[in-house]
C-alpha cells in the first residue's frame, strides 16, 4: 500500500443548520487517484474547499504529509504543494494559453513582489508556465487566445494552470463537466498520465471516467461518507449500490 499523503479525520462543515460535510474521514495515498462521487448537493465541492483551505472546517482535522493543516490559508496550502481547480473554469479568456499559465505560475512564487529577486523569479516562472502547458498537452497552443479554444481545451488549460503552480497534490472539481465524449476521454488520458507522479482527489460525475482511472473511491450522500476505500470494494458495497450506483 502506498504512503498516506492526505488524510481527513472527522471533517465537518455546517452552513447554518445544514451539515454540508458531516464527519468525513478519508485517506489519499501517494500517486493515487481518489475519486469523490455523489449526487448534487452531497458536499463534494465543500470537501474540496475544505481541503484547499478556501473554507475553514467546523470540526475535524486535515493532515497533509504528516502535518496538521486544519485552518491554514489557501495561499499557504498552495505553497505546501496542493493545487486545485474550480468547478467552473477560471481562465482569463482574452489572454493566451501561455499567459494564463504564466499568471498561475507567478501566483505560486514566494516573494514575487520583491524587486531584487525579479530576474531569478522570471526564469522560475517561465519554467513553471512552460511545464504546465506541456503537462496539460497544450504546448502547441501556447500563443492561442484561451477564449477562442473549445470548452474542453479551456478546461484542459485550467489543469495546466494548476500544474504551473508546481503542486505535488491535485484537487480537481469536475474537470470533465460539460465536455463531449472525445474531450472527456482526452482529459481521462491526461489524468491517467498525471496519476503517475501526482496524488489526486477527483470530484467527478462521469462514472466511466471514474471507474477507468480511480484507485480509491469515496461516496458521499447528504454530507455523509457512505463508503470509502479501494475502487472495487466500494463499487460492490451493497449500501453504495442501493443508494447511488443502482444496478
Ligand atoms: P456538491 O458539490 O456535492 O454538489 P456542495 O458541496 O456544493 O455539493 O454543497 C453541499 C451542500 O451545501 C448543498 O446543500 C449546498 O447548497 C450547501 N452549500 C454549499 N456551499 C454553501 C455556502 N457557501 N453557503 C451555504 N450553503 C452552502
Ligand atoms: Mg460541486
TrEMBL record:
| PROSITE patterns assigned to the protein according to its UniProt record, in alphabetical order | ABC_TRANSPORTER_2
InterPro entries, per database record: AAA+_ATPase (IPR003593), ABC_AA/LPS_Transport (IPR051120), ABC_transporter-like_ATP-bd (IPR003439), BCA_ABC_TP_C (IPR032823)
This chain's protein is named: ABC transporter ATP-binding protein
Entry keyword ATP-binding = yes
Against Pfam families, the record matches this protein to: ABC_tran, BCA_ABC_TP_C
Q: Where are the transmembrane segments?
A: none
**UniProt KW ATP-binding keyword:** yes
Matches recorded under SMART domains? AAA (SM00382)
Per UniProt, residues of the ABC transporter domain are 6-247
Q: List the keywords (alphabetical).
A: ATP-binding, Nucleotide-binding, Transport
Source species of the chain:
Geopseudomonas aromaticivorans
* One Gene Ontology term of the molecular function aspect: ATP binding
Amino acid at each position: 500500500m502506498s504512503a498516506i499523503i492526505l488524510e481527513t479525520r472527522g471533517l465537518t462543515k455546517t452552513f447554518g443548520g445544514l451539515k454540508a460535510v458531516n464527519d468525513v474521514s478519508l485517506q489519499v495515498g501517494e500517486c493515487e487517484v481518489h475519486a469523490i462521487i455523489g449526487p448534487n448537493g452531497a458536499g463534494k465541492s465543500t470537501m474540496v474547499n475544505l481541503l484547499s483551505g478556501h473554507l475553514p472546517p467546523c470540526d475535524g482535522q486535515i493532515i497533509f504529509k504528516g502535518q496538521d493543516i486544519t485552518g491554514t490559508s489557501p495561499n499557504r496550502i498552495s505553497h505546501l504543494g496542493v493545487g486545485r481547480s474550480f468547478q467552473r473554469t477560471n481562465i482569463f479568456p482574452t489572454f493566451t494559453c501561455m499567459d494564463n499559465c504564466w499568471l498561475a505560475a507567478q501566483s505560486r512564487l514566494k516573494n514575487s513582489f520583491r524587486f531584487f529577486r525579479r530576474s531569478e523569479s522570471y526564469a522560475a516562472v517561465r519554467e513553471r508556465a512552460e511545464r504546465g502547458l506541456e503537462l496539460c498537452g497544450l504546448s502547441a497552443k501556447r500563443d492561442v487566445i484561451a477564449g477562442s479554444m473549445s470548452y474542453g481545451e479551456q478546461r484542459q488549460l485550467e489543469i495546466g494552470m494548476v500544474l504551473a503552480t508546481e503542486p505535488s497534490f491535485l484537487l480537481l472539481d469536475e474537470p470533465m463537466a460539460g465536455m463531449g465524449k472525445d474531450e472527456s476521454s482526452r482529459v481521462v488520458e491526461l489524468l491517467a498520465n498525471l496519476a503517475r507522479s501526482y496524488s489526486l482527489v477527483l470530484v467527478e460525475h462521469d462514472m466511466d471516467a471514474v471507474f477507468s482511472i480511480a484507485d480509491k473511491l469515496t461516496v458521499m450522500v447528504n454530507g455523509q461518507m457512505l463508503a470509502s476505500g479501494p475502487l472495487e470494494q466500494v463499487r460492490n458495497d451493497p449500501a453504495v449500490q442501493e443508494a447511488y450506483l443502482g444496478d
